Amino acid sequence: AEIRSGSDSLEKLKTKMKESWIANGVRLAWLIDPYDEKVYIYRPDREVEEITGFDGKFLSGEEVLPGFELPLEEMKRG
Questions:
Q1: What is the rounded distance in angstroms from the CA atom of residue 3 to the CA atom of residue 26?
Q2: What stretch of H or E contains 16?
Q3: Taking residues 22-46, what's their average pLDDT?
C-alpha cells in the first residue's frame, strides 16, 4: 500500500506503482489518495481499478491476503 502525502505528485506515484511495484512482481497494490478520497488498485495484466469515496467502503486483500479488509473510512483526512 502506498498512501499519498500532501507533497507527493499523484502522477509520479501512479508511475511508481506500475514501473516499480507491479513490474517487480507485486500481485496486488493500492495507491490511496486521502485528499481526493480515491484508491487506485493495481494488479498484473489488468487495467487499474479506481474507487471513489471512502464512506462505507473496504479494500479487500483478495487472494493475496485472504480475509484481510481495510476500512477506507479510516483513511479520511481530518
A1: 16
A2: helix 10-16
A3: 97
